[in-house]
Write a structure and sequence with these properties.
The protein has 280 residues and is of the alpha/beta class. The protein has eight helices and ten strands. The protein has two domains: 143 residues, Rossmann fold (3-Layer(aba) Sandwich); 122 residues, HUPs (Rossmann fold, 3-Layer(aba) Sandwich), CATH 3.40.50.620.
Length: 280
């Protein structure tokens, strides 16, 4: 990974995700873009109405965010001074998803790493709303770091798929790089309903044999209304350190979350989740 985007709202959880990223990519030459996106509506309060102009409000907010990022960069530069890292600060005043996608395109971002709950998140939520939106609508792969999760060696990586579409190498490039970088074992979970209908759609086995020839394969019945529990139980029983899935509209990610409220997943996934994007 050459270019990595680290969104932050300056919460404890977003700072934890930054530290996870820096530990995760140790030994690699990386450019880290630490970005904070502000929304004008968040600051139009009774207290700020005394400011003379919207320009003053903008400057106040932007300057504060820039200073906070500068402090983060100073701290991590000292702690990771022996690494081949470069840090860049970005502060924007825009729609969150639009801003993230603009940075992804302009900076040729390989991976977004962010926490799964922000400063205003409900404590029992698995994912903060911004993280879910980034997973669903951004154009780069996302590595979501659960609250309080500290980096440890990735010994066992699982890729869960319904095989509902055929894969191309570019779809899984980030997963391939992570597997090579961490020299981790890999399990591929082929999920289908009891009639195995999805197995017959695109088995992708030639692709897997070529790109993950040492991976093991598990074929698991997973009714759509119980898919999360099936995957979660597998994670626990097999000591999986990272879970990877593919996001395509009306496909796996949507099925994984659609039939449950976010609160039902509270505290269940405590490992990083890699969400890759499949182009149409």
């Amino acid at each position: 990974m050459k270019n990595v985007l680290l969104p932050t709202d300056f919460s404890k959880n977003s700072i934890n995700a930054i530290y996870y990223a820096l530990e995760f990519l140790k030994g690699q030459k990386c450019k880290f873009y630490i970005v904070n996106v502000q929304k004008a509506s968040s600051f139009i309060t009774d207290d700020m109405m005394v400011v003379n102009s919207s320009t003053s409000i903008y400057k106040t907010v932007i300057d504060a965010a820039k200073k906070s990022i500068s402090n983060i960069i100073t701290t991590v530069s000292e702690e990771f001074g022996n690494e081949n890292y470069q840090f860049h600060s970005i502060v924007d005043y825009d729609n969150f998803i639009d801003s993230i996608n603009q940075v992804v395109e302009k900076r040729n971002i390989d991976l977004i790493i962010m926490g799964t709950k922000g400063a205003s998140g409900i404590s029992k939520m698995l994912f903060g709303s911004n993280t879910v939106r980034v997973m669903q609508r951004c154009n780069a792969s996302v590595l979501a770091i659960p609250e309080g999760c500290k980096f440890k060696k990735i010994n066992h990586l699982a890729f869960a798929t319904t095989n509902s579409k055929s894969f191309k190498k570019e779809h899984l490039q980030v997963l391939i790089k992570i597997k090579e970088l961490k020299s981790t074992s890999m399990q591929i979970l082929h999920l289908a309903d009891q009639n195995h209908l999805v197995y017959d759609a695109y088995d992708n086995m030639d692709f897997f044999d070529k790109n993950f020839n040492d991976a093991s394969h598990e074929f698991i019945d997973a009714p759509s209304d119980d898919m999360f529990n099936v995957v979660h139980n597998y994670i626990r029983k097999n000591n999986i350190n990272m879970l990877a899935i593919m996001n395509k509209k009306h496909s796996f990610l949507e099925r994984l979350f659609k039939t449950h409220t976010v609160e039902r997943f509270a505290f269940k996934i405590d490992i990083p989740l890699l969400v890759m994007q499949m182009s149409e």
